[in-house]
Amino acid sequence: MSTVLESNHAALMGREQYKATPKNAATSTAYSSNAFDRVRWEGCFTKLREIRSYEQDWNDEGAEPLSDDVLSMTFQIAKMLRANVQPAPTQCIATEEGHVIFIWDEGVEYSEVEIDRHLRCTFRKIRLGAKRAESTEFDPYAPVV
Amino acid sequence: MKDQQEPITDNEWILRRVHLSWFAPAGPTAINPYAFKPQIGGDLPDTTGISFYRLSCIVDFNDILAKTVEAKRPKYGIVRLPVSLLASLGLNVKRNDDVDAPIVLGHVIMPGINSINYSQDKDAVLPKMKLLADYVNEHQEFLRLPSI
Fold it and tell me: Exposed site from A5, A71, A109, A122, fewest CB < 10 Å?
């Protein structure tokens, strides 16, 4: 059964829908065969580990460390995407409010997945020339009906 | 050099401090749209707009780091944008002089990107943040890079 995350992200990235689930993502070996993507995913996880180690005032503007719940969900989503051979984000960032954001910014379109401190996940996409982003809040674990 | 009380004109440049966390980790020098994210919490949320400084009102662009603790300054880059760009993006800047005790002259704010509209309608604000970042990246308007 696929999840909303898989369905949305596959559509977002223009790829075929993928198969991993939260249950098997951590152990799946169906990672991208593309060496460039593999290197980028490694960079992404390195960055997430760095974000996990953030201490008080990590942004030099007084930000608090991120919550364990946000970090846990962030790692899980990253593992699911990687396990389903999705392209690695071009950047992973944290914000002062305790959110983590995956950014895909290559070519004409920009997209991001934001995991906020209330554990809400939002896909956001900016089409070329658009004045508003298109966003969808989703439960990454909800099955597609 | 201009007095900070003089009107802002289209031929000016504005400067923004950018923390190293908004720089791309690898590849060509680039920032992401969050370099223009308003401060949401803390002691000084950007309720009226994100901060910039007018290049024409200061002697050296590094002066805009004067309010930053010295030990943290290497973590900041400085980017610049032409004022003439802003109208085409539906943005502007307004003077916000620090009159009583100006540590850095030429402080301005960009009302179109503030903590309130970012929190309430990020979908409307993010494209503007992205356009500003795109301009900086495309034209490589980096005056200073983080040195850590």
Answer: A109
Which residue type does B10 have? Answer: D
Band the pLDDT of A23: cuts 50, 70, 90.
very low
Residue A101 contacts B, CB cutoff 8 Å: yes
C-alpha A37/C-alpha A43 separation (Å) is 10
DSSP B23: B
What global pTM score does this model have? 0.88
Answer yes or no: do A133 and B39 touch at CB < 8 A: no
- How much is the average pLDDT of B70-76? 96
pLDDT band at A86 (very low <50, low <70, confident <90, very high): confident
B147 vs A: CB within 8 A: no
Complex-level ipTM: 0.93
Tell if the CB–CB gap between A91 and B41 is shorter than 8 Å.
no
| CB-neighbour burial class of residue B1 (10 A; exposed 0-12, middle 13-18, buried 19+) | exposed
